[in-house]
């Protein structure tokens, strides 16, 4: 089914990046509530960024958590108007269901893909999540569970039905995003590292280019 591809810009941690994403028409921005990350933000910082509203589209705010406690998520929600919880750790289906019920927000579970066998995990999560984010697994020795600028084999998605709405991530850039959408039929895409001028610092020009390239591409899956 053809359609306009949704775009998420992840790891927004300063006003220049937030404004660039909004101006470019990004559908979603991601705030990383994971202190070890160079893109990490506090609840207060995320709240201040979201309050900018933006000069263009007001993007949906996505909170990225890694095996966070209920208290950590509640603290983020006290300050930031999150519309989607991205769970980027080892959260089980039961944990996803519990968080969805407790906070009354949609949940997007991240699953790392390296081989066809990895898709088997989707079925257990499908009844209790609202979306999947399909990402590369962290490379050996990586210090972060995501945001590592690596792609998985997009061919693994060919002809595959994903049981919930989903988003493609992992090593996407303004240069490869159109090809990624064509190859996978992804209805939504997410990028972080590929939009940075240095690690942890977004580049407004790369953000604008990524959003434009993705919105110009059409999902065919
Ligand atoms: O970005 C981080 O620092 C991060 C830390 C902990 C868990 C996840 C993290 N990022 C995830 C993402 O930014 C994206 O959802 C996705 O993994 C794509 O990242 P990239 O390959 O850098 O575009």
Automatic annotation (TrEMBL):
Give its E.C. classification number: 5.3.1.24
Q: What class of enzyme is it?
A: isomerase
A GO MF label: phosphoribosylanthranilate isomerase activity
Instruction: Please tell me whether the keyword Amino-acid biosynthesis is annotated for this protein.
Output: yes
Domain N-(5'phosphoribosyl) anthranilate isomerase (PRAI) span(s) in chain numbering: 7-212
**Superkingdom of the source species:** Bacteria
Q: Does the keyword Glycoprotein apply?
A: no
GO biological process terms on file: L-tryptophan biosynthetic process
Record keywords: Amino-acid biosynthesis, Aromatic amino acid biosynthesis, Isomerase, Tryptophan biosynthesis
- Catalyzes what? N-(5-phospho-beta-D-ribosyl)anthranilate = 1-(2-carboxyphenylamino)-1-deoxy-D-ribulose 5-phosphate
The pathway to which it is assigned is: Amino-acid biosynthesis; L-tryptophan biosynthesis; L-tryptophan from chorismate: step 3/5
**Protein name as it appears in the record:** N-(5'-phosphoribosyl)anthranilate isomerase
UniProt organism field: Pseudoroseomonas cervicalis ATCC 49957
